[in-house]
């Protein structure tokens, strides 16, 4: 008598074992489904684990893959193409984290479940799967974003039967996932609450870490202090979250922790990387700067066999992420099935270069030798390799006044542009924007975006940088030319009317400016809610606007050399 039901998926018979109960070492049981072929033989397994709900992942069997901006795109369907996994000869196991879906236990805070590291649960699930009669004892993992981060947490626990992982679009440093340059990002709200194209977490028993740590009286004082931030106080959703914290536990914790520190570093996947010794393939697409940054940081921290693949736009893959399946199965066929397909004979790093559409390979990031050069902000909205010679009395600052979005729909933008490039010019790596600025308030945001502007008016976002002015402090020991590091461990209000140098980190990128194209830098303190780039993102993927009126003056004279510091390759693209 079989222990599964059989379903038809596009002409393929699939065996489904529903609602398996998987015991954890502390007595909690997790719920999981297993999909496989119908023949009575053990197979290697690919495990997916998240709080988004295994029933949601099952829609991959009945709904064709969706890409943005399809209204059917759901950012939480991330466990992969079930039918393809089965067709490639693997068992696809999809589990619910504790405190979500059909699992027991409770979730508390980030990457933590009732005081239990989520990697510990992943370890126990993997070892249970490996011991089942339908598994041959060889296990990998599957899934992007949250599922991808879970792979890193699992690998750091070193389950004996986990042979390799393939991580696409993972997020690692959780502070950088939720605050870009100190500026709050709303996307984590969507993933947790379920809005703007996301179904969200399948909550069953979720608790706020802040409510666990503080008495109601202490928490009330902390909430009132947080509401003193005009940006927070001006945004209705945040006021609602802070006044009714039991409604949105995770989002409440994020809003309440605006500085980096122990709350974010606890079980940060990057800090766990030295514990990982199995083969790791990391894949990320350009356009999601914070995840490109974290992916490269994780890659550099890994010691075992590894690959890094940085892909092209658009920044949001289809759901499920079918674009990466061919690479994933090559990786697992080699490391799990033992097939010598040559993948480890290929270069470790592969990067898609926007503009030229080339794929550049090498042994490290960036795969080519680069040198940082400065492009100076000049009068008449020009960018030039030559610095400004005039003093402040002649090179008057550029400026803009931004009213809060509570009273206007218009986002003011300053822009500077190079002359058209005469030859193809390639850039690859991290960068920085040094802005000498004066504001008339004690805080603002600086949002800088670099565009490749074609002669016909089309343009492509190359990279971006964010900095909350009160987070301008640099770690001088970790900062290098074109690669600034902000600790974000305290906020220092700005003295209104004082000229300060603000150094924005520009996320890693790879792009070639073709002949006739211009490089355009745009600066604002809020971001347009819809443009050529943001249209590719879910509706909630924007940053908290500034909640006060601010006048900005950007100095770019001989004494205040505002500039971009960008990574040019030593040889132009062919």
Automatic annotation (TrEMBL):
It comes from the Bacteria. The keyword Iron-sulfur does not apply. Keywords: Hydrolase. SMART domains: PepX_C. It comes from Actinomadura parmotrematis. The keyword Cytoplasm does not apply. The lineage of its organism: Bacteria, Bacillati, Actinomycetota, Actinomycetes, Streptosporangiales. This is CocE/NonD family hydrolase. GO terms for molecular function: hydrolase activity. NCBIfam families: CocE_NonD (TIGR00976). InterPro entries: AB_hydrolase_fold, CocE/Ser_esterase, Galactose-bd-like_sf, Xaa-Pro-like_dom, Xaa-Pro_dipept_C, Xaa-Pro_dipeptidyl-ppase/CocE. Pfam families: Peptidase_S15, PepX_C. Residues 329-565 form the Xaa-Pro dipeptidyl-peptidase C-terminal domain.
